[in-house]
């Protein structure tokens, strides 16, 4: 029998072994083929240091690992073990990677520990790194560090960590937020004869940036070049991303210039990061200008580039400009995805361009772009804003028929639409029907329902919904609390409203009162001539670091003019409020009240005005203004 015939027979025989899934099944299945003959495997002649057939086993291991057929893979390993075949580490590396793709870190760990005893194959640092990588990719960072310590510090170990090992170790530490420990390990690497490479620096820079330690991350850029390790575009992108998230676009722009000097051309990620940073800062015109620069540099924009600009323009209320960007995108051969359509449709509805939004929906359908939950929700919200909740409800039914599951935004938009149209019963019925579509009532739905019921004066039913929410273990958010407080105040139950307010003070951050909550109580107390209680509440508001807004000022100005005898214009009251905020170093809040005073022709005292100007013109403020000018020049 030739070698080819032996190999073919082995392949067919092993592949025909019954899998674990088929064992023990009914007699309707065909009987399994007979087991492979030991004589077949033992009859091959010797060939060098390997017996004929070992390479076939290795090929089978590669095949079954690639196809994730772990049952057949185990059968091959068992057969090799019975035949006293030679196990080489290369095959185990293939298996470890397969376990990683299949998200089976436990099996990778088990096989690693079995290698020396069950298969007489001593693992090297290659196997160790492969398993360590599998564990880290699954997010088991603590287990990865424990695995490292147990293996590397074990007695009689032949595994000495290399650069890849340290890179994986740094990644796990940074993911856990242990950046200081990562820096210590990084400094020890040269002592272990493992000088850091580009990936090492990138990993540590990324960890430092995520801990808002940007300056330390940037300093590593100079250090790595001094050590003869030249940065890659990825290195710069990590730092640029960190600076953009911090809002320091000026330094990010200088890094781009540095890239060119080092012979690193900005890539898609670089430009997308900068464009995203500009959009967050509201510099949409500069973002569009950077897009043109990107194209002129022969760097092709992608969906993320265009999507970022479209979203930024829509958030600024410039949906029509966003449509122009979309058209430019299509002219350059890019297909518009459903997320861009959803942003545009939502933006056009919010901007009062309902006809354009509907045309865009039709265009999307004609181009074969199937709408998802986000797009359907944008259309439903837009129709409700137009005062057409019934039409929006038809879209909801169409959405469900198409297999798209409505989300919290979908239902809450429709409920708001019915409340706005005065159809309170329909909104409540919709809330009840949601359970039929396996939609769990969460805090968003409860907040919308409570707000709508309180707004139409149906306090008793709102209180029933409130009780139901608490019974279900759903914690109210600030919107739900504020709505109930508003409902109680409208019903004249100010003491009950204050009781709920004090309960609110004991809740978590997302349920803490905001300026809207305080304004509801200020308005009610002042209308009831409880001005001293309103002032006490204002003092409490300031102590809790919540700044007054224009509505707060207007409530107290109206009260001082209408409720006091003799009437006051409120100038001294607002002037004192400005001083109290300045004493607490809340310059932004103080400046907002000064703006109100100027608009009401109630200029601050000269001393107060002097303090405001002094605070706004401190060296740091001046430097911030200069930096702002530079940023405008950089782009």
UniProtKB/TrEMBL annotation:
Chain positions covered by the region annotation Disordered: 16-39
Domain of life: Eukaryota
Biased composition (Polar residues): 16-28
Keywords from the named record: Repeat
PPR repeats: 162-196, 197-231, 232-266, 267-301, 302-336, 337-371, 372-406, 407-441, 442-476, 477-511, 514-548
InterPro entries, per database record: PPR_rpt, TPR-like_helical_dom_sf
Family (UniProt): Belongs to the PPR family. P subfamily.
Name of this chain's protein: Pentatricopeptide repeat-containing protein
Species the sequence originates in: Hibiscus sabdariffa (roselle)
The organism's taxonomic lineage, starting at the top: Eukaryota, Viridiplantae, Streptophyta, Embryophyta, Tracheophyta
